[in-house]
Design goal:
Elements (H helix, E strand, L loop, with lengths): L4 H5 L4 H29 L5 H17 L32 H6 L4 H12 L18 H7 L17 H5 L21 E2 L5 H5 L6 H14 L16 H7 L3 E2 L8 E2 L5 H5 L6 H14 L16 H7 L3 E2 L5
């Protein structure tokens, strides 16, 4: 029998025949399995009633979040009520902490107001005071007649037709005029918790936690523009919230260069391994630092690095 190329070309070994059978089976079964899978998963559906309940609960919490929050426990604060207030005519731009407390304001609230003014803040209109974080509506309504500042100018369209027809002026603080948005409180970024930051436009729970977490790593903010260092913060979002923020630098936590070890220093975002090693070598070679500026002996710490880290350093009792 002679050579037949076609027959040899069509010849498959036993192993190859098994592979062809498996391939054909896979091709046939693939659309069947896909159709069956869609049929099984389509039966799961969406629990629309549960979704509605979750949405209603979320909206309820959202509406509650516009209320003045209770002071954090770290202030040792009593509830904010108008009871015990002894107001007199005053300009909030020129009142000392003791004068605020003499009118009956709690010490932590007078401290926040003082920090806001010290950071360059200013009250232009009466209702600016209502935006201070922890200033309740009840307190403000008692103080408002005594504030020696003008009312905020009323813009066209900010008053409802009902108010105009009744001859009323600008809506009271905490109320919403048609087409307007609630104004967030003025926030001290070194004292505010994550819920306070979430009241700002463009700041959700994730960003709020990042801001607080980065503050803890730093030991506190000493400039507002340090928020630009928070992961994901951009100039647009920062520009939206900048006018509602101030900072009290006296709440910055400092590292004692004569006591801190490698593990404590390396945790600070502004110190890398090489810089920390250089600082510890200087301390070991020359003894305790007389001032934080002594670390500038290291060539790794130039002027820019020093200005960045200086607010977070001290030399213990020597300074």
């Amino acid at each position: 029998m002679g050579y037949t190329p076609i027959k040899d070309w069509l010849y498959f070994s036993r192993r190859e025949r098994k592979g062809i059978v498996l391939l054909i089976a896979a091709i046939v079964l693939m659309p069947i399995v896909s159709t069956l899978g869609r049929h099984l998963y389509s039966g799961a559906g969406i629990d629309s009633e549960r979704v509605k309940k979750e949405a209603a609960l979320f909206n309820e919490r959202l509406s509650q979040s516009t209320e003045t929050p209770a002071p954090p426990e770290r202030f040792g604060a009593r509830p904010l009520t108008a009871e015990g207030l002894r107001p007199r005519p005053f300009d909030p731009n020129h009142l000392s902490k003791d004068e605020w407390e003499a009118m009956g304001l709690p010490s932590y609230l007078s401290e926040i107001i003082g920090n806001y003014l010290s950071a360059g803040g200013n009250f232009r209109y009466k209702d600016d005071l209502s935006k201070i974080y922890f200033m309740s509506r009840e307190l403000y309504e008692v103080l408002e007649p005594y504030i020696l500042l003008p009312d905020r100018p009323v813009s066209v369209g900010s008053i409802s037709r009902q108010n105009v027809s009744q001859g009323k002026g600008e809506p009271r603080p905490g109320t919403m005029a048609p087409g307007s948005e609630p104004q967030p409180a003025l926030i001290d970024i070194n004292l505010a918790d994550s819920m306070a930051f979430r009241r700002l436009r463009g700041i959700g729970p994730v960003f709020a936690r990042r801001i607080v977490r980065y503050r803890e790593l730093l030991g506190g903010y000493h400039r507002i523009d340090q928020l630009m260092e928070v992961y994901g913060m951009d100039s647009i979002r920062y520009g939206q919230i900048r006018d509602y923020l101030f900072v009290s630098p006296d709440h910055v936590r400092k590292l004692d260069l004569n006591q801190a070890g490698f593990a404590e220093l390396i945790r600070h975002p502004y110190l890398d391994r090489e810089t920390v090693t250089a600082i510890l070598n200087l301390r070991r070679q020359h003894g305790p630092f007389e001032s934080a500026a002594d670390i500038r002996q290291s060539h790794l710490i130039d002027q820019a690095n020093w200005e960045r880290i200086a607010p977070y350093l001290s030399a213990g009792g020597s300074e």
